[in-house]
Fold:
Amino acid sequence: MAAYAGMRGTGDWSTDQRPFHWRKDMLRVWPQGNMPITGMTSNMRSIVVDEARYNRWMKVFPAQAADLTNSGVYEDAALGTAYSSGDSYSAGQVVYLNMILADVKEFRVRHYVLLRDSSDVSVDKRGEVVSVVRDGTSSYIGVELLEADNTSGVDLSDVDRVMIIGNLNPEAAEPPAPIAYDPSSDYNLTQIFWNTLMQTGTAIAVGGSLRTPDDYLEAKMDCWELHGVEMEKSWLYSERFDMTDPINGQPKRATRGLIKAIQEDDWAGTNCVKDFTTTTTISDDTAGDDHDYSGDLWTQTGGRWINYYLKNRARYSKIRKVSAICGDGALLGIQHLVEENAMMSLETRQADYGIEIVRWISVFGTIDIMIHPLFSHEPTDNYRMIVYEPKELMLRPLKTRDTRFLKDPNFNKGGDNAIDAKNEGFRGEIGMDFGNLRGCAVLDGVGRDNTQG
Structure:
């Protein structure tokens, strides 16, 4: 078979040829095949690890804001007298804002803050932090008002949130107190992948399925593809496990895959993982109000639903163009939204590495969608879509243990360990690693009608 752009044929390989990097060639051979994640990550960054368990550290942009607790705004440092509706404080007077201990740690003296009523931003008042008290549920910041309170209708008694909007420093001031943020940590494990090809000496000699070099290469490619497909499934579905094999008593590990990593992320798991078929009420969705999706048709409110979760994902995304893999049912569901809404746009194009994608232009960025063959093959994943940032995915091979082809040095030789067969295969010890999971989403039921109600 002749070679062409984006693909390499098995007939172009000589009998003993070994690719420079087995995982990298998976994408060139099967650009539209069963392992797009494996193929794409192999062409991206890959960092070797020294241990089977490896850590990752992540810092997110600090909130620099807090929701107030109990009565919110108080007139005294003892938090005994709540600010009442109709009270009239002038600029220069101090109010005390009660919040949880974890939030008060973000504030320091001289912070410039905005006091806000979440339901009515016209209440906004500005002030300067003059004191910070860390005392469990009685934690608070003292804020000197820089402008007088508005006593007509709504006032500081309605304030339920405070935001840092800068810092205020006089001339010849001493340095302010520092604030540092600790990164959050997580870990993953490497997993040993091993797929073998075995034929007896007799089968090879008498002309079995591996009679010629070309037949042998075809079987070798089949083994290689199976090795890649099984890695691909782990990159998607696996959860990490660290256990002991009951047969040989040695450690055995499974790496955490992309889906489970998104689901277990403390923010993405709550705000970016959802199933349209089981969604009931979403508070404050993209239309700005609550909506009960129970019993809705996909073509009625599917666009509103998916935009809500794309908005959540985009809030922490570093880039405007991301990728998605989905089943054919999910892509058909997106097409139905395009047909119902002329404001949406889809276009088919060929991306890097010879992969054909559908580009979806949305208000929350551009999404390059690729039908994942494994999702289309598995009926329960037909309507699933995984949105992710490709540059935030990375494979972590254990040093000297990346995927390689293991030849059988004992074939046709004698000795205590001799066996009348050729036993070869592919083996690698690799783990998955992730960057910004808050820019990802797992959306199920894309294209299906809601079943609630």
